[in-house]
Amino acid sequence: MKKINILFPLIIIMFMCLLINSSERIYENSDMFLDVGSLLEIEFLKDGELYLKNKNNVIKKIDIELADLDTEKKNGLKYRSFLKEDRGMLFLLKNQEEYKKIDMKDMRIPLDIVYINQFDTVIFVKKYVNPMKNIENLNFSSPIKYILEINAGMSNKWGIKEGITKIAWI
Q: Where are the beta strands (DSSP E) in 81-162?
């Protein structure tokens, strides 16, 4: 009986050493694990509606998801495989430096990025921004209050014009 009492803990210890040693090899081989971000899919959450207007004529109404909190702004539309045509994300900026933090890292879809000033007027549209690319920092003469991200090509299709198109959202 004493031999069994001594052997059993030794067997457990050997098994644990084998398990720990083999798990180290698994973690070293990165092919064994998938990037969690590649499996993640975040769904669109409608927070409101945005109206795009040229000279008081509504040219398009879209559903918007708001990015107001720091984490929402950091993530934006990342980890999304698609965005329906009549949707977008509206970033509510607290200060002038925030627009420079927008990037396309971990993006899966190309976008048009619409910069909007404190008068709710579109002042610049960066068209067909490819996923996973760095965005060059732009300098604007007027403070940026909002950024609207929409599917690539929609700014042309909807007739968004710099200095003319205004937004209103509810």
A: 87-92, 111-117, 122-129, 144-151
